[in-house]
Amino acid sequence: MLYQVLHFEHNIKFATASERAAWGLVIDGPSLNYMLQPGNVSLFIELTQYCNSVLVCRATPAQKSAVVMCVKIKLNRLTLAIGRGFWFGCFSMLKSDFD
After folding, report:
1. Residue 78 · residue 68 · CB < 8 Å
2. What is the Cα–Cα distance from 44 to 35, expressed in whole angstroms?
3. Can you tell me the distance from the alpha carbon of 20 to that of 31, in angstroms, rounded to the nearest whole number?
4. What's the pTM?
């Protein structure tokens, strides 16, 4: 995982603006656990700001909530959180999208 992040970070420095506009990030729950550790959050946010969209899959509602809060607070960007439809399980994630 760290190798992929560093490789992506290296490519950012040499990419044109039009190349960056086509980038997206897909991240799963276990990878998100690594990226949301205190020492890695700033790197995760830095990577997401170069992406046109970020898709979080196979993650817990709490993980999705953490991503929404990080992006809203640090980047002041629009977020969308979608759950499975089970109100109680997704409440924290959906609440963070409206705070």
Report:
1. no
2. 6
3. 22
4. 0.67
Bridge partners (DSSP) listed for residue 54 = 25
Place of tokens 């929404």: 68
Give the separation between CA 60 and CA 36, rounded to whole angstroms.
13
Distance CA 72, CA 32 (A): 17
Structure-block tokens of residue 72: 């809203």
Q: Are 68 and 97 in contact (CB under 8 A)?
A: yes
Q: What is the DSSP string of 13-77?
A: HH--HHHHHT-EEEEEHHHHHHHTSTTTHHHHHHHHTT-SEEEEES--HHHHHHHHHHIIIII--
Chain segment 16-56, per-residue pLDDT in tens: 777 767 788 899 999 999 999 988 898 888 888 888 888 88
